[in-house]
Batch of 2 targets.
Target 1
Amino acid sequence: MIKYKVPATSANLGIGFDCLGIALSLYDEFKVEESDKWELHGFINDEDVENNLFIHSYKEAAEYKQMEAKPLRVFVKDNVPCSRGLGSSSCLIVGGIYAFSALNNNCLSKEEMLEIATKIEGHPDNVAPAIFGGLCVANKDGLLKLKVSNKWNFGVCIFNYEVKTSEARKVLKDEIKRSDAVANISNAIMAVDALVNFNVENIKAITKDTIHEPYRKKLIKDFETCEKLAYGLGSKAFIISGSGSTCLSISDKPIDIKYPNMIYKQLKVDARGVR
Ligand code: HSE
């Protein structure tokens, strides 16, 4: 039996739509062993092996290596909430791929895991930090892993309603203006530097997205009120985590946000990824 955990992730980081993400200290925990039949425990629907994202990803990893996907017995403790913008799908994808590798002499490198996981997820911004940890910049041509300054404090506002990523992608525009592209490129560079080098003056750049946040804020009914509350308490940046509904606060000192129908968790950046 192998035991391992996969970190939650906060993708996009405002200005880094589909290419930036960080791993956070909240984990889905897995126990996996080979078996004579498929057996799932702790998933939303343990009976539906056929449509299970963990099993699908395990089989994709086997296919990638042109090896047999032997049946598994899988136990999950899913601490990462579903459809809330904290990378719960990535946890299952990375969990399934990691299971195949670990049960077969660690036959996949992290780079190969990223290739398989990105093909399944469609974009790398959640799966990259789930695999590598830290702050990841990822696109189809490569990966850059960076260490976030440990002086930053991260807090997630987990609202009690879901936003489906598929729905949150439908509200986006297919084309963006050149001036918006320029704004996002420059703000992304400033924000990444601010995260790595604890530049408190420039961290606001992370909130200046023009590609997805203006459209998606409308899907999160508590965004504006909670944002005001967070800034009042000393937050330096308040953004949507992934495609929502969770929001991420970044501050230079610990803050505690209390709001109805919302769970607030102070988290650290996970520097190591799946393990
Ligand atoms: N980059 C993705 C999105 C993250 O914002 O749609 C959610 O999976």
Target 2
Amino acid sequence: MGKILATGGTGYIGSHTVIELIKKGYEVEILDNLFNSKIEVLDKIEKITGVKPKFHEVDMLDAENVEKVFAEGNFDTVIHFAGLKAVGESVEKPLEYYKTNIDGTLNILNSMKNNGVKKIIFSSSATIYGDPGQPQCVETLETGRELTNPYGKTKYMIEEILKDAAFADKELSVTLLRYFNPVGNHESGLIGEDPNGIPNNLMPIIMKVYKKEIPELSVFGDDYDTRDGSCIRDYIHVVDLANGHILAMEKMQPGVSIYNLGTGNGTTVFEMIKAFENASGEKLPYKIAPRRAGDLPVLTANAEKAEKELGWRATHTVEDAMRDTINFLRNA
Ligand code: WQD
């Protein structure tokens, strides 16, 4: 069983995946610059798993040090989580997003090439479907059309870069995992989503409202053509997402494999509020606000391919995610 390098492994999705990898007996090292995560995550991983993964505090834009990590690591597989991910910020700072996400990935790919590492799993996003013109996304849909922000474009561009790399090197195995809306955290409540700065995703905002750091949640639109007027998304528990990486890794083969990681089910914003209130036992203050530009009424995953080919299926519910979130909030 070869060694794994997790770029961005101290981040939200990365750290949860590292935990599941360690639990299954894999050896993992982490490369992260701690731009949007904290070094304490390593102790928490150790507390949960009994193992403290080897950590490299390296910026993936620092090609020289990335190369050093690879030269010493003898890795079998890279799981590439690292990148900037705030949609709104990416509109304000496009060059930073292109530089970090694209150049960073190129540095990782170059070092993989220099050191004979032939497998890479990439954290892609449902955002690359743009406006798919239908509520459910299947992997065969065209991607890259009508992308509304540089963040989403970098995810699309990196998918294309990886496809070209796999075309040129027939020994390369590339797996693109298209995440839907990750929520929840490890059941211990020791780790969870803890973004620096003002969050723009629904769950981290709900968490800040609960902690009274934000006075109320703005529900972006209650007049969509959905069952209660608010938008529908496919919220996937991060531990399910983490396990998807492991099953995908165990089935890697040369060429490009693409999987949606979502539940296949949709939840409205109002249903999310209700589920959070049920878990916390408290009312969550909210107001109705105008629609947010670029939001689609409904976006869910067709997750049949991952089920059929990987034997992967989400087993946690939104209720589980809310219970774990409350646990994290009360622990932190
Ligand atoms: C979910 C729902 C909002 C905040 C985005 C990116 C995507 C991916 C995940 C990330 C929507 C509503 C939200 C709020 C609200 N990448 N909402 N009030 O838009 O599905 O996807 O995040 O890193 O690329 O586009 O997720 O969490 O922003 O929103 O009513 O204050 O919650 O309108 O319906 P989204 P989200």
